[in-house]
Structure formats: C-alpha cells, structure tokens
Fold this sequence. Notes:
This protein is mostly helical. The protein folds into 2 domains: about 210 residues, no CATH class; about 80 residues. Helix content is about 65%, strand content about 0%. Helix 4 crosses helix 5, helix 16 packs parallel to helix 18 and helix 17 runs antiparallel to helix 18. It is globular and about 55 Å long. The chain starts with a helix and ends with a helix. About 0% of the residues have low confidence.
Amino acid sequence: MEELVILAIPIFTVLMLIEFVYGMVRGRNTYTLTDTLSNLSQGLLSRLSQFVNQFFHLGIYALLYHWIWKDYENTFWATGFGIAVGMVVFDFCDYWFHRTEHESAVFWAAHVIHHQSKHYNLSVALRQVSTEPLLGFIFYLPLALLGMPPVQLALTVLIILFYQFWVHTEHIGKLGWFDLVFQSPSNHRVHHAINPQYLDKNYGGFLMVWDHLFGTYEPEVEPCVYGTKKPFDSVDPVWTIVCEYVSIFNNVKNTKGFANKLRCVFKAPGWTAVQDFKGQSAESYRAEMSAIGASQPIWNSARVAISLVQFFSVVVFSILFLINEDTAAYFDGVLIIGTIVILCWGLGAFMMRKINFTQLLMIDALCAVLLYLKLIVNFV
C-alpha cells in the first residue's frame, strides 16, 4: 500500500503541472503559489498523521474484524464481484460519514480543511484531513461486521481516493449521463461551492446514487464560488488544523446549560443557543475575494524561490520518513513528524510575512539537526 502512495506522488505532480500549463494557455489559470503550497502541505501532514493516529485509522477496525471473524477466511471479498460490492457498500458508508461531516460541528472541525481553499484545482484534492479518523472510523465498522478484511478496506479507500483526484478541476465541463451516475468534476464543484443552492450537496465519493436517493443531489447551473461561509485566509498549517476545534471550544465555553453545550458540539457548524450561524452570502463572499485578490502583495523571485525550496525540503523529508515508516519506533516517528510540522509552519509563516528569511533559516537549522539525528542517521 505504501508503495502505491509514494508512486502516486510524481503522477499527481505531473497531472497538476499539466493542468497548470493548460490553464495558462487557455487564460484560465486556477492556481496561486500560496494556496497550492498550503494544499500540498496539508496533504503531506495528513498522510504523516496516519502514523500517529494509526489505531483510529485502521487499528480499531482490524480489532473488531478479528474479534468477530477470528481465523475464518472469506474468499468472497477477493473476487472481482466482491471488490465491486465492497466499493458500493463502502461508498454508502462514506456518503453518510461525509454528510455528517457537513451537518455536525465536531465532524466539520476536521473536514473543513478540505473546503478552505478559495480555488478549485487538482492540488485541492490533496488538501486532506489529519484528524478525520479520530471519529470517522465509526462509520466503516459495519464493513467489519460484513467480513471485509482490513487490507481490502485499505485498498478500497485508496481506490476511491485516487478516483476522487481527477474531479477537482474546473477544466472539465459537464459530462451528461455520467454526472447523474458517478462523482464528476461538475458534481464536485457544486459540493465545494458556497452558492446558496449548492450548500451541503453532492456528498457521494464515487457514486451519485445516494445523493439521488436521499435528496442531496444538485446539478451545476451557475458558476461556483469556493471556500467556506466563514472566511478563512491563513496558511498556518497548525492553525488550519485546530481553528474549528478552537471555535467549538469557545462556543461551548460561552453557552449556558449542559444540553446546549452538547448541541454546540454535535449540531450544525456554528450553532448557538441564540441562532444558527448563517455566514455571508455567496455574492458578498465573491466581492470580498475579488477585493483581497486585488490587494495581494507582489511576490518577488527571491521569495518564490525560498518558498519552493522550503516546500520541497518538506517533501523530501516526508518521503524519506514514509519509506522507512514501518521500521520507525513510535516516539521517534512522532518526533520526526512534529519537526516536519514545524517546517511546514515556517513555510506558512514566511508566505504570510509573519517571519523573515533569517528567522526561517534559524527554524530550518534547528529542524535540520533533529531530522539528521532521528531520520538520516537512523534510517538512511
């Protein structure tokens, strides 16, 4: 499985470059440097986090599976028909998990990361979530009851995730009957949009049948406005991960009554005992984003080069760790991942002009020493 993930990195990179060049040629570039590096950094952190939360990621599922089925070997799931059935059943479970992520604050706190980008391109597909498995594993436990082996579940997850990569683009239009049956770029653009009629629609990961059955399907009609209704402009990777949890904490702290405190956690995002959070309209959001875009500071070539070098350093260290992940002691792995998180934070802080080049170099020097001692010496 790990080899597939590492192999996918250069493939995804080439596809993103193709999309970028195509957009430039057609005069419809959908990429910005800050947003793209932020998306890719979150993707790397999400994959690295699986080492930390592996018990929730697949461990609980494996324990339940082996407790129920013990040494019984069900060959059905290894057949072609079994794999197809497994994908359909998984997609059903995933629909309800995805829908819950949008309809419950504590689940949205994890998932919001994937929706924070104000752009829509293939790099957004890699803007994945680090804390999702902490509660999300519950939705897939029925598959263990049905006897789907843990390895089969992991393979199914990879297949669905790889499939979802191509739907994150603005350069593929509507596809007729295909849009009615399968997840597609048009359907998923709607899902990422904050236009009033598009909110909380098209949850399907692979099939759209569940959206048709449960009333959440919406075709793409007008141009999409992307982002979140509560605007988010930070590229600090740590704040990106924790910001909604902090919001829930503050909401609970300022709400009276135990029942209402629980509602702040589990009801819709932004719920308060006074009124539900409505956010701003898509029209005002569009105007705000245009104003922000017009006032963005100009990036010079040196700042671009420094940011790219910083990001590719993060990529190299991440790949080195992933290659040796299976042999890493848990504490050493957590220390290495924590150091990579600091490097990502330095990248975000530099892009946001919160720190200068000298301060970034000091951070990198300290991180390099630790990574040399824990990663290079031990594993390379």
